[in-house]
Design brief:
Number of strands: 27
Shape: elongated
Helix content: 10-25%
Oligomer: single chain
Strand content: 25-35%
Mean pLDDT: 94
Low-confidence stretches: 1-5
Largest sheet: 6 strands, mixed
Distance between the termini: 37 Å
Bound molecules: adenosine monophosphate, magnesium ion
Number of helices: 7
Strand order of the largest sheet: 8-5-7-6-10-9
């Protein structure tokens, strides 16, 4: 049996690095083919290749006149000999000396033309067109040449990329109605606590609604996993055992609560009974200090599940649960989705107020990031501690306050995006 305390308590950075190290070794799920529009948030399991040159023809980027740039000079009148519209075949349209062809944005530039004069920069009368004063052209202006964005056969999206609107647009441009993506890892969510009631129950005065299972389910889905909420585990050895036995059959097991030092915090002990390896049993951070990360060995005689099951024991206080999810679970889960190994999503922002540090802890506090045209600014949200879900909902990020340092307004700090 492993000793739960042997793994010990790590600094924040060390703990993140420990997770990333394990994330780099996870097994990536099989591929499945799904409809293009279902693929947002999934991880691509194939390369998407340009099925033709992009753009597929020399494309006008302005409404105006297809001309030869060296003929578009002050005082010279050109004869308009036709018109090409977007979606119209320009085959046959070609330009001889002294001619111009009226052209619309998105249309194919006729043979012989090497620039498009904007309609706003031209004067016209009858079938003659000429340059407006001071509005000359250089060759190539207002034309995107065939194949200059992508060549037929070129891989435009690579396996392992996360799919969002930009990738969906590009896949659509390549004619792809379906994409091969990685299957979602199955994530079991177990809330522990005698005080918890489910949403269909009216809580007594001393009871708390189980919000963590919902928070975690939403976070898992947003990170690309498929969440399953198991029944609440009461603070008894039997109940915690039973739920862990169920949860270990999944790809990843998330437990909330029961990891502090209290008499009824049984999660670590029971995990140890199952032969768990612990990679850390606490992190010098606030909130989130009691967070636990480890791995359960593969069950004998089962074909289901992975070769082993990673687990996180997250603190029960709702803000702690979310902060530790973003710092540790999210990078692990993204790797399990096949998206590769990446640190939590930190950006830099300017602190809008003085904040006191705390010696021995990295503080990761609910905060609001505001963007204006100058620079992103962050200020802490007033809160009543790590149970304050209302304050958490007023926040849109978490400000990272390094160990022991007092910070001044104007200092640049890291901000954890959510
Ligand atoms: P624990 O980590 O088990 O000591 O839980 C700390 C506190 O977090 C509890 O006293 C509850 O108020 C709260 N809590 C624990 N589990 C949940 C949950 N599933 N949903 C909402 N709050 C919870
Ligand atoms: Mg508890």
């Amino acid at each position: 049996m492993s000793d739960a305390n042997a793994a010990g308590i790590l600094g924040f950075r060390e703990a993140v690095e420990t997770v990333l190290q394990h994330a780099s070794g996870v097994r990536i799920p099989e591929a499945e083919t799904i409809a293009l529009l279902e693929s947002a948030g999934r991880v691509l399991a194939e390369d998407v290749v340009a099925d033709r040159d992009q753009p597929p023809f020399d494309r006008a980027t302005r409404d105006g006149f297809a001309v030869r740039a060296d003929e578009w000079t002050a005082g010279r009148h050109l004869r308009m000999v036709g018109q090409v519209r977007a979606g119209e075949e320009s085959a046959g349209a070609s330009l001889a000396n002294g001619e111009a062809i009226e052209i619309m944005t998105g249309a194919a530039v006729p043979v012989g033309a090497d620039a498009v004069a904007m309609v706003e920069h031209a004067e016209q009368s009858g079938d003659e067109v000429w340059v407006a004063e001071g509005r000359g052209l250089t060759a190539g202006e207002n034309i995107v040449l065939r194949g200059s964005e992508a060549r037929k056969g070129e891989a435009l999206l690579a396996s392992g990329m996360e799919i969002a609107a930009a990738e969906i647009a590009l896949a659509a441009a390549c004619g792809r109605a379906e994409l091969a993506v990685r299957k979602r890892p199955q994530v079991a969510i177990v809330a522990t606590g005698d005080e918890l009631v489910e949403l269909d129950q009216a809580p007594e005065a001393h009871q708390i609604r189980n919000s963590n299972s919902y928070a975690l389910a939403a976070l898992v889905a947003a990170a690309g996993g498929s969440p399953g909420r198991l029944r609440i585990a009461r603070d008894t050895r039997e109940d915690v055992r039973e739920r862990i036995a169920q949860g270990r059959m999944w790809d990843l097991l998330l437990l909330s609560g029961g990891v502090s030092a209290g008499k009824y915090d049984l999660v670590e002990e029971v995990l140890a009974e199952f032969g768990a390896e612990f990679f850390f049993t606490g992190v010098r951070m606030q909130p989130g200090k009691p967070v636990v990360f480890g791995r359960l060995p593969k069950l004998e005689n089962t074909s289901g599940g992975g070769p082993e099951c990673y687990f996180f024991g997250l603190p029960g206080n709702p803000v702690s649960t979310k902060v530790t999810f973003h710092c540790f679970v999210e990078p692990m889960l993204r790797a399990m989705c096949g998206a590769g190994v990446g640190a939590p999503r930190f950006v830099q922002a300017t602190l809008a107020e003085d904040v006191q540090g705390r010696v021995g802890l990295t503080r990761i506090l609910p905060a609001r990031l505001t963007h204006d045209f100058a620079r992103p600014e962050v200020r802490l949200v007033a809160w009543q501690g790590s149970g304050d879900l209302a304050a958490n909902a007023r926040a849109n990020c978490y400000a990272v306050l390094p160990d022991g340092r007092d910070l001044k307004a104007g200092d640049v700090i890291s901000v954890l995006l959510r």
